[in-house]
Design goal:
Blueprint lengths: L1 H25 L17 E5 H7 L1 H41 L4 H55 L3 E5 L15 H10 L1 H7 L3
Parallel strand pairs: 1-2
Helix pairs in contact: 2-5, 3-4
């Protein structure tokens, strides 16, 4: 009776070991199927971000719109600041001369607090709107560049189009691989088509 139990127990362990090794086989990693590219036939080019920013028409249009809004925002803030400073100066003058009733003084103080609060709210709200708009524009420009890069590479049979700029990860690239001028011309010429393709 003991022998049968041991045999069954041994059989059970054997089964466990076999099933565990089968699980391991199922979980083995499959190697990716990466095609080998002939370096002699690989076309690599780059564009310079600084030059692109200077010459990409759409970028300048969007940047100009933002600058106009930024300038207006700053002028409004300065006007509010001057108004607050003027109100504060008058309050101090009245306090020093003591030529105003307590009720009028309280009214000026209340008005000063209200305008200070309004100025702070305006700065936070409008400043946040401008920041969000700038981020949205950057996102749109990044998507346009991505889409344009794909089309440009397909058109000119380029395998890799790198982005080169100050502080980037590329230390040096041969100047004859620079397609910045050509890519910027392509971007400017294809702008309407890019807008259509992206639904903008």
């Amino acid at each position: 009776m003991k022998y049968v139990y041991i045999a069954l127990l041994g059989l059970g362990i054997g089964t466990v070991v076999i099933s565990c090794s089968e699980d391991k086989k199922k979980k083995e990693e499959n190697a990716p199927n990466v095609p080998v590219v002939d370096p002699n036939g690989l076309k690599i080019a780059f564009y310079n971000t600084d030059s692109l920013i200077k010459n990409y028409t759409y970028y300048h249009e969007q940047d100009s719109i933002l600058k106009v809004k930024q300038t207006k925002f700053e002028k409004d803030l300065m006007a509010r600041q001057r108004d607050l400073e003027d109100l504060n100066r008058r309050l101090i003058e009245h306090q020093q001369k003591m030529d105003i009733t307590a009720a009028d003084l309280a009214a000026i103080e209340k008005n000063l607090r209200r305008k200070t609060e309004q100025a702070q709210n305006y700065q936070q709200t409008e400043g946040s709107k401008l920041q969000n708009e700038a981020m949205e524009i950057q996102t749109v420009i990044a998507k346009k560049l991505e889409e344009a890069s794909k089309k440009y590479c397909e058109k000119y049979k380029i395998d890799i189009l790198l982005v080169h700029g100050q502080g980037g990860q590329i230390g040096y690239i041969k100047p004859n691989m620079d397609v910045t001028e050509s890519f910027v011309d392509f971007l400017n010429a294809e702008q309407d088509k890019l807008n259509e393709d992206m639904g903008k």
